[in-house]
Design goal:
- This protein has ten helices and 15 strands.
- With 349 residues, the protein is of the alpha+beta class.
- It has three domains: 3-58, no CATH class; 64-189 and 206-213, Trna Endonuclease, Chain: A, domain 1; 225-343, Aspartate Aminotransferase, domain 1.
- The strands form two sheets. Strands 1, 2, 3, 4, 5, 6, 7, 8 and 9 form a nine-stranded mixed β-sheet that branches.
- The two termini are 27 Å apart.
- The model is unreliable at 1-39 and 211-215 (pLDDT under 50).
Length: 349
């Protein structure tokens, strides 16, 4: 279960978070949600290399609207999703956001500015059924969107469903139960801590137990060479897998706690909920190395990068065109910068 802590992109923010101490207790399945919420309160401490420790105070969002506006304004949280609509009618429900992601999925997002328990399950199941039976509506929203990204292709005949629940806390029994739904479901806890006028956001993706996680989501594709060669240039597919394998060797050698994940458009190395870097398709033939970084770090990254690179504002990432001459090892300083920016393992005072 990964925990992500990072300061907002604020030039005046001098301190660097690197130690998140989570004070919680092991709970039995019958523990009530109110008891869980009280007992699972977190404390966050910052500790610099000189030994100075600063305590951060948890500051809950005041309203659900404030929570939703924060999620939308903090692009790193939903960095792989293009939002199509907000607050739309879906049968008797009103999902907070509907979008599409880089894995050819319609995404239904539910924001809850309160603790979540098992009562969320029938609600998100209704969302999934609505999305499956209203794909023409979602497609129409996509076609109507004036700012839809040119580098995002949707195969509407193979559209899958993804559900996301964002909340300050989620009862421990919920991840076990969502594994039975047969859909891709992300359960994400978001907490806000404050030190003076600065905010620290802790994002924690809850994982289903291993035995439950084996239940495949409906229609999930197998992303092997055959899958890509049906859709991409075969020679480029070989290069795609070579780049992914070299990045994986770098991850193992550096000892980074990142997991490789393939989808229709990229192979990414993830820390919990977030991509750190990877290789993606920029067409049927072209591929690129992508590195997730806030724009404030692009100047430094460009100086570290030995190859021409660009910054993609929409997806918040640096990109480098991958060719047979590109050596991923030479990108290690840039990959390290992205890793440390997200995971925070190399703090400074």
């Amino acid at each position: 279960m990964g925990v992500f802590s990072q300061q907002l992109d604020n030039p005046g923010f001098k301190c660097r978070v690197f130690l998140a101490v989570l004070e919680s207790v092991v709970l039995k399945a019958q523990t009530s949600l109110s008891d869980y919420t009280k007992e699972n309160m977190q404390k966050l401490f910052w500790k610099g290399k000189r030994g100075k420790t600063i305590s951060a105070t948890e500051t809950p969002f005041k309203t659900e609207d404030e929570f939703e506006r924060f999620v939308l304004s903090t692009k790193e949280i939903l960095s792989d999703i293009f939002i199509l609509k907000r607050q739309v009618r879906a049968g008797r429900d009103i999902p907070d956001m509907v979008g599409v992601d880089q894995d050819n999925r319609a995404v239904i997002i539910e924001n809850k500015n309160k603790p979540v328990d098992e009562e969320i399950l029938p609600q998100i199941m209704r969302y999934a059924v609505w999305a499956e039976t209203h794909q023409d509506t979602i497609r129409a929203w996509w076609l109507e969107a004036e700012d839809r990204p040119d580098d995002l292709e949707i195969d509407w005949d193979r559209l899958q469903i993804r559900l996301i629940v964002l909340a300050p806390s989620i009862k421990p029994t919920v991840p076990k139960l969502v594994g039975k739904l047969g859909y891709a479901v992300d359960l994400v806890e978001i907490k806000k801590f404050s030190v003076g006028s600065d905010d620290i956001i802790v994002v924690n993706q809850l994982e289903s137990p291993a035995e439950e996680a084996r239940t495949p989501a409906k229609g999930m594709a197998v992303y092997d060479k055959e899958f890509y060669k049906e859709r991409r240039n075969p020679r480029s597919v070989d290069l795609f897998f070579e780049m992914e394998a070299e990045l994986e060797r770098i991850v193992k050698k550096k000892g980074w706690n990142l997991e490789a994940k393939f989808n229709a458009y990229y192979a990414g190395f993830k820390h919990g909920f977030f991509n750190v870097f990877g290789v993606h398709w920029a067409g049927t033939k072209s591929i690129e190395i992508f590195v997730k970084l806030p724009k404030s770090k692009f100047g430094k990254a460009r100086r570290l990068c030995p190859y021409p690179c660009e910054y993609n504002e929409r997806w918040k990432q640096l990109t480098v065109r991958a060719t047979e001459n590109l050596k991923p090892k030479r990108l290690i300083p840039v990959l390290q910068l992205a890793h440390d920016s997200l995971v925070g393992e190399h703090p400074v005072d």
